Model the fold of this input.
Amino acid sequence: MTTIPKAPPPRKRDYPRAPVSIRIQYRASQKGAKEGFTAIMGGGGLFIDTVSPLPAGTDVSLEFGLPGQTGSVHVDGQVVWVRPEFDPKGFSPGMGVQFKKISPADRERIVQLIMRVLLGQPENTP
Done:
């Protein structure tokens, strides 16, 4: 009798996430910069809407601003999953990026933004 291995239990997220649309620039090594918009964001990563997602496993450098704040956030991340086309539920194509290298201050700025969104407060207040 063959035993089918069970899928691992879902991993609990370390940070909350919320739908946030922010213009973002991203670059894979040896490739030119591209622009897109985030669809969802949290302290541990984000989803970029794009019709040409990079392959899973690709390292990327990200740069984006946060509403109501000065300066840019700079993050090194990795594409961890890809939705290559619109799915039956209407979710857009794109890629999920996990943050690999981010300053504690930038992560805190992101988490504060997400908490404001989740609490229904304006995104653009520092």
About this structure: The first helix runs from residue 104 to 118. The chain has one helix and seven strands. The radius of gyration is 16 Å. The CA atoms of residues 20 and 51 lie 18 Å apart.
